[in-house]
Amino acid sequence: MKKKWFIVISFVAMALGFLASRYIHAPDAQATVEQLKFDSNFDKNSLNDFESDYLIIDFWASWCQPCLESLPYYHQKFKTLPISKFDWLAVNLDTDKTQAQDFLSQLNLSHTQVFFDPNGHLQTAFAVSALPTLLIIDKQGKEVVRLLGFNQNQQNKLTKILGDLTKK
């Protein structure tokens, strides 16, 4: 009789476990990422702090050769965008913050808004596998655009995309 109850209880526990796994979900990864806090060189330290329609996120590192060209280009390109519609965030992936600061200083970009992410939390959350990578995220946290690398083709795509998004 005890064996029979044990089997019944085990079966019920398995069924409840199965149902729970189907209907109870872990927190949304995007929500978690938005709540992370980062060391930065300006007054914001979380993705939640940005309020524009679109957040442009540029992933870079001081050792990234194409980043030598992409950061100054993006700085010039994005400073002409309407600030109510777009925010630009440069996410640095160097393990040593001083390397990033020296890199920015050499390019005369010390005033660029940077999150220092030495542990790669945002890189992992957004599945960034190459540098530079440029993402455009909408207010709902949905990825609208992903551009890998930096070349003339990417610049042309970006110009068209920004024009389209500005009109929305």
TrEMBL record:
Would you indicate the residue range of the signal peptide?
1-26
Q: What name goes with this protein?
A: TlpA family protein disulfide reductase
Lineage of the organism? Bacteria, Pseudomonadati, Pseudomonadota, Gammaproteobacteria, Alteromonadales
* Span of domain Thioredoxin: 14-167
Q: Which UniProt keywords apply?
A: Signal
Entry keyword Translocase: no
Q: Which domain of life is it from?
A: Bacteria
- Endoplasmic reticulum: present as a keyword of the record? no
Where do the coiled-coil regions begin and end? none
